[in-house]
Amino acid sequence: MKKERIFVFKTKPTIISHAAVVGKKEGEGPMGKEFDYIFEDSKAGQDSWEQSESRIHREAVTRAIKKSGYKNEDIDMIISGDLLDQCTGTAFSIKDLGIPFTGVYGACSTMALSMLVAATMTEAKLCTNTVAATSSHFCSAEKQFRMPLEYGGQRPPTAQWTATASGAVVVSDKGKGVKITSGLIGTIQDMGITDANNMGAAMAPAACDTISKYLKGTKTKPSDYDMILTGDLGVVGTELLLELLEKQESIDISGVHNDCGLMIYDLNEQDVNSGGSGCGCSGAVVCSNILRRMEEGELKKILFIGTGALLSAVSPLQSEPVPGIAHLVCLEA
Amino acid sequence: MKKERIFVFKTKPTIISHAAVVGKKEGEGPMGKEFDYIFEDSKAGQDSWEQSESRIHREAVTRAIKKSGYKNEDIDMIISGDLLDQCTGTAFSIKDLGIPFTGVYGACSTMALSMLVAATMTEAKLCTNTVAATSSHFCSAEKQFRMPLEYGGQRPPTAQWTATASGAVVVSDKGKGVKITSGLIGTIQDMGITDANNMGAAMAPAACDTISKYLKGTKTKPSDYDMILTGDLGVVGTELLLELLEKQESIDISGVHNDCGLMIYDLNEQDVNSGGSGCGCSGAVVCSNILRRMEEGELKKILFIGTGALLSAVSPLQSEPVPGIAHLVCLEA
Q: What is the pLDDT of residues B30-78, one digit of tens each?
């Protein structure tokens, strides 16, 4: 096996602020009190689902900037992306902020990818303050990838619920906060999954590949971390990940593993089948609960692995598989 | 005006190889002899336009790697993206190469953006060899953004022809070749353009903003460069750019300006209206003719400004404007 490049950030890029903004359903879940703002209206006062997603995304970005104490003109770069075609959720969100923009695409792994690109720009000493962000919206995602909401399609038990949510961090070369100390950009894994209603199965092999490469590359073990947090594998994907790591790699992460898709909703009460998903799911959980607990000292060192399924609305109809990708960020308090 | 961050690459990331692969029409144009490979079949032997784009993209990436003398396992990262929904042109292209993947989205500016992110990873000393690439395909783009080809829709004179093309470079921290010495990541400009058949007008203000910020930030003038090359403004956008720079910024680049969208086709003979466009247009022109002329000493120092229009198939139907973005790369022989 090729030795993957672990990104070690010697400059220790620092998350000096973070914000998470969500929709009504996410606000009613177990993390409700963690979020900076909850839009009670699914359309967030806009005319379309797409505009609503942009509105929520902008709210997270502007709140993160405000909490950092900086102004827009102090921010050198926004690194962001989303699930909408041509990343328009992001583009229309930030177009009037006057901040340079690096668009990234990693499907639901985008929060981890944007943090890694932000940390890389800090490490290269090309940026002082950057924003890393992402968003998703249940209604814009359903409309685009699956069925019109009005159709009332039945969701199989493996299906996940795309979170209406956005997360944003300000990453700086100085200041107080959680440090991005290392990471690993993932390699696409294609196990031939063709069920567009089972994203967990599509993403679990990628998470397995990235986690095992990182642990081997850094010669660390699961118990060295307070948490190994995947993005949005949900119930089905989590079970697969634990099994794959155990059987293929002899790595047992069950004692420290959690998944943002399992945390954001009450799986018994909120009718979300296999759990939450979408770029905003891990974005909002990491940018609220997780970073707060790190700042308060409850969690000292964690691995956050964003997980993405690389499909479009067209690709499954052309019998293409759903390849997965997973990007890993090591965060230290 | 906020002073934009000019990215100055002290490590001088080097383009050690490049490849350009195109379709039949591009092969019949004035650059025909420059390209590494021409697919005579629009479907490139595949079953769909989308798969054809992925095939062409993969051909450019694998040819660039082969020409570098390295093997896949020596490449630390592919940085790439395209115009297809969820960047599936790229994902399905490279999924079996076993190389870590950073997905970027900059619409038709993607070649410049991927080169800048590659150079940033080199500058941060996180990668040794990276691939920066992009692609577009006339048929997959028409199908997705405009009309089914079979409809035979009339194209207004302002419309551009999406190039069936892909370009790729291998960027290394050592070796011989053209250097990426500096750059500027652009800021979204929204002038309220709503005509999805006039991308040149949507992108020209962004090119104007990026070029003037870079020239002012580096205290250089147009005559310091052998060429100021925009991505795909075409006839309409080029005229607007020259006028905007002259009137708003008192900068005259007319003596050194060219545009990949004006170079890739014979505008009199090939029925492409306002010229070429698409990520692959500037990708293929830069990764063939331009880099060859730099390597041969004809061009010593150029600015390449990738230009992108940030729309989806949905956004114009929702009366959204078409914001533009432009990313600049300074290349030195």
A: 999 999 999 999 999 999 999 999 999 999 999 999 999 999 999 999 9
| Cβ-contact B246, B288 below 8 angstroms | no
Query: Which helix (DSSP H) or strand (DSSP E) does residue B61 occupy?
Result: helix B49-68
Q: In chain A, where are the structural domains located? A: 13-172, 178-332
Closest CA to B135 of B15, B23, B302, B36: B23
Domain over B178-332 is classified CATH 3.40.47.40: yes
Question: Which token pair is B50?
Answer: 């989308």
Class assignment of domain B12-172? alpha beta
Burial B213-238 (b: 16+ CB within 10 A, else e): bbbeeeeeebeebbbbbbbbbbbbbb
Looking at the complex, does the CB of residue B186 fall below 8 Å from at least one CB of chain A? yes
User: ipTM for the complex?
Assistant: 0.97
Q: Is A234 exposed, middle or buried (0-12, 13-18, 19+ CB in 10 A)?
A: buried
Chain A residues close to B143, C-beta within 8 Å: none
| Residue B37 to residue B313: CA distance in whole angstroms | 31
CB-closest option in B2, B91, B311 to A310: B91
* Contact present, B102 and B79 (Cβ < 8 Å): yes
**Dihedral pair phi/psi, residue A54, rounded to 5°:** -60, -40
Look up the pTM and report it.
0.98
Q: Does the A13-172 domain belong in CATH 3.40.47.40?
A: yes
**SS3 assignment, position A309:** strand
Residues of B in contact with A199 (CB under 8 A): none
Chain A residues whose CB is inside 8 A of the B324 CB are: none
